[in-house]
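PROTEIN DESIGN WORKSHEET
SECTION A - STRUCTURE
LENGTH: 270
C-ALPHA CELLS:
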C-alpha cells in the first residue's frame, strides 16, 4: 500500500526505539494516522460477492436497491476506495513526512547523546583492553581473568550502539531528503573529525567501526549534518590548497596568500 520511502522512514523510527529513545509525539501521531487509514480502508472494501448479496437482500425485502442504505453504503465505500485511495494515502503520507522532517533537530540531538555516551565507554574500555579485535579476540581477552569480562562486555555493547546511530543518521538523511552522507567515501567523517592527512594515512575511505576508529587514536565526535558538511569542506579546501602549491611549483608562480585563502574559503565558493 504505502511506498518504499515510507517503509525506510519507519525503519529509522524502529532503530530509534531500539536505542531506547522516545519518538517525538507529532511523528508518532502521524505514523499512527497512516495505520488508522489503512485499517479504515480495509473496512470499507466490499467484494463483488458482498455487493451482490446486499442487493439481493434489498430486493427480497421489497426495498429499492437504489435507495437501500446497505446497498448505498457498499457502493459509496467501493467508490471511495477505488477513486480516492491514492489521494487519501498521499495526504497522510505527506503529513507524516512533514512531522518527520520537522523532528530533525530533536532526533539528531538524541542520537548525538547516545553516541557520545557509548563513545565515552569505548574510549575508557580501550585503555583497559588495548587495541584488540572485539569480534575475533574474545577468547584471548577473557583469558586475562579478573574483571576483564566486564570491560569486554561494555566495549562489545557500546560499539554496535554507535554503529546503529550511524546507520540511523544515514537513513534519516536519505528518507527526509534533508542531507546526504557519502556512505561510499566519507562515511567515517560522521563520527571522527579527521583531517585529510589522517584520512589518507589511516585509509579512512573504507568503513571502520567506532571501536576501530578509536583504536587508531582518532577522537570520536558525532557530527550534525552541518558539522559533517564542514568536515567535508575542510577536506576539499586542504586538497585544493595542495593543488595550488603543486601548480605554483610547476609554473614558478609566486603564491599570493590573501588571494589564495579567499579562493579556498567555503564562503567564497558558495
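SECTION B - SEQUENCE
RESIDUE ASSIGNMENT:
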Amino acid at each position: 500500500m504505502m511506498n518504499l520511502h515510507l517503509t525506510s522512514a519507519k525503519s529509522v523510527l524502529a532503530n530509534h526505539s531500539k536505542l531506547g529513545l522516545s519518538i517525538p509525539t507529532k511523528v508518532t501521531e502521524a505514523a499512527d494516522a497512516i495505520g488508522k487509514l489503512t485499517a479504515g480502508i480495509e473496512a470499507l472494501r466490499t467484494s463483488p460477492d458482498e455487493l451482490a448479496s446486499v442487493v439481493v437482500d434489498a430486493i427480497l425485502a421489497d426495498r429499492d436497491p437504489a435507495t437501500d442504505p446497505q446497498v448505498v453504503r457498499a457502493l459509496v465505500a467501493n467508490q471511495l476506495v477505488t477513486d480516492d485511495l491514492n489521494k487519501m494515502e498521499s495526504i497522510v503520507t505527506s503529513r507524516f513526512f512533514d512531522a518527520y522532517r520537522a523532528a530533525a533537530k530533536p532526533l539528531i540531538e538524541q542520537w548525538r547523546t547516545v553516541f557520545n555516551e557509548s563513545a565515552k565507554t569505548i574510549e575508557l574500555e580501550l585503555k583497559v583492553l588495548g587495541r584488540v579485535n572485539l569480534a575475533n579476540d574474545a577468547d584471548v581477552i577473557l583469558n586475562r581473568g579478573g574483571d576483564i569480562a566486564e570491560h569486554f562486555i561494555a566495549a562489545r555493547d557500546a560499539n554496535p550502539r554507535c554503529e546503529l546511530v550511524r546507520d540511523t543518521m544515514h537513513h534519516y538523511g536519505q528518507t527526509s531528503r534533508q542531507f546526504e552522507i557519502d556512505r561510499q567515501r566519507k562515511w567515517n567523517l560522521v563520527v571522527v573529525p579527521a583531517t585529510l592527512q589522517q584520512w589518507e594515512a589511516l585509509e579512512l575511505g573504507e568503513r571502520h567501526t567506532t571501536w576501530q576508529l578509536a583504536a587508531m587514536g582518532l577522537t570520536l565526535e558525532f557530527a550534525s549534518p552541518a558539522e559533517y558538511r564542514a568536515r567535508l569542506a575542510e577536506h576539499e579546501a586542504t586538497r585544493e590548497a595542495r593543488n595550488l602549491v603543486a601548480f605554483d611549483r610547476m609554473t614558478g608562480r609566486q603564491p599570493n596568500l590573501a588571494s589564495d585563502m579567499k579562493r579556498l574559503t567555503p564562503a567564497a565558493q558558495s
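SECTION C - NOTES
The first helix runs from residue 4 to 18.
The two ends are 42 Å apart (CA to CA).
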